[in-house]
Write a structure and sequence with these properties.
Serine Threonine Protein Phosphatase 5, Tetratricopeptide repeat, 56% helix, Rossmann fold, 8 strands, eight-stranded mixed sheet, single chain, globular, 402 residues, 16 helices
Length: 402
């Protein structure tokens, strides 16, 4: 693995990797200039062969809100709780208007001074924002919506009315009271359950202040409908959080929702350990069988390269070297351009005493790296190249000694 190599690059790339891009969009939908903020994973420039899921964070007009949750996501990914992802901040000039559906009752019309712009925001995202992000950055076609309060109202609106926008929706303390529970009734009368097939929905609220005690009524109704309808293909989780402030519920809710989503896309460590104990089945075949329905449900190629690498080293550290090698061989077949998998394969093969295969893995890594030369700046490319060359030289030295 390239842990030490990348550590050497950390200081020089920190400012770039942790920077935020701001893109101005001449929106035809809103007939105005709109800005989005993009925070890239720390590793984005060090791993140009990796692609990333995208989290769309609403209410990014607040710098503190955007910065707090991008830092939260970076921390969770650094600690291995979730996969690294690109965060796109969506700023709204009038959130009461942009996050709400068109009111259908007199009470809804009076609820805010101006409401009913959710359809426009959804169209803006669909035709103007998501295509730009997909074109400019290395993305996986898996989009996650993160919304708090009225932002949670909007992501639920999208789930029901624009299901192609997001694969997963995390709604924390959403306002479903708007327009006499319009979205609750919309959910109850949902004509096509297929809209929610292959979706993930995380819904949570707190208790103890006026907003939370009011908003949890609608959330509870949605939870009851989820239980009652039992929609095939929809994976969901409902949480009544021990959190007593509407302003702090997203601090708990977003990170728990993201961790819950990641658990649906990953092989739990405990499950992998249980595969070791099952002597009636081949380990790698059990892993493949686990990921087959997960891949079909998510609609993306799973496991991701970093997931493969993590699983392989968990096997390696559990003294299951043949299982680690089998995982990496499978991972390389899924992600043939990922140089880190070749480096890991070589390292584990070398440790297992198979120096011939280790040499082949390192050489293949060098070959793949050469094809990707234009993705790196000169310094990074030479550092990674020298890493493989040093590995190969180490093999030759070891052979000479023996």
């Amino acid at each position: 693995m390239f842990r030490l190599l990348l550590a050497l690059l950390f200081v020089s790339t920190l400012a770039t990797a942790q920077g935020v891009d701001t893109i101005s969009i001449a929106s035809k939908v809103f007939n105005e200039q709109r800005k989005i903020k993009i925070a890239l994973p720390d590793e984005y420039y060090d791993k140009p062969d990796n692609r990333y899921m995208v989290a769309y964070l609403f209410d990014a007009q607040s710098e503190d809100f955007f910065n707090f949750y991008t830092a939260t996501i970076r921390y969770l990914s650094a600690q291995g709780y979730i996969q690294p992802m690109i965060v796109v901040g969506i700023a709204s000039g009038n959130r009461q208007y942009e996050f709400t559906p068109t009111p259908q009752t007199p009470a809804g019309v009076k609820y805010f001074q101006k409401s009913g712009g959710a359809a426009l925001l959804a169209e803006h995202l669909s035709s103007e924002v998501l295509p730009i992000v997909a074109k400019k950055y290395r993305t996986i076609p898996y989009n996650i919506a993160l919304g708090h309060s009225l932002g949670g109202t909007f992501v639920t609106y999208c789930l029901l009315n624009n299901p192609k926008l997001f694969n997963a929706a995390i709604a924390i303390s959403p306002n479903y009271q708007f327009d006499n529970l319009q979205l609750v009734h919309k959910f109850d009368s949902l004509a096509t359950k297929e809209k929610l097939d292959h979706k993930f929905f995380y819904l949570a609220h707190g208790n103890g202040d006026n907003y939370e005690d009011n908003f949890k009524i609608g959330s509870g109704k949605i939870d009851s409908l989820l239980v009652q309808k039992n929609i095939p293909g929809l994976l969901w989780e409902y949480k009544n959080m021990d959190n007593h402030s509407h302003g702090t519920t997203p601090m708990e809710g977003f990170f728990k929702g993201l961790v819950s989503l990641d658990s649906q896309l990953s092989l739990p460590y405990e499950t992998m350990m249980s595969f070791f104990k099952d002597t009636q089945a081949v380990f790698i075949e059990q892993v493949k069988a686990y990921y087959k329905p997960v891949t079909a449900w998510a609609g993306i190629n799973l496991p991701l390269a970093d997931q493969v690498n993590t699983m392989a080293y968990n096997c390696f550290y559990s003294n299951k070297k043949s299982e680690a090698i089998a995982l990496l061989q499978w991972g390389i077949s899924l992600h043939p351009d990922n140089i880190n998998l070749y480096d890991s394969m070589g390292e584990i093969m070398q440790d297992a005493g198979d120096k011939t295969s280790a040499e082949a893995a390192y050489k293949k890594g060098l070959e793949v790296l050469a094809k990707q030369k234009d993705r790196y700046d000169t310094t990074k490319y030479r550092t990674l190249q020298e890493g493989f060359q040093n590995r190969l030289q180490g093999l030759k030295s070891a052979n000479a000694v023996h």
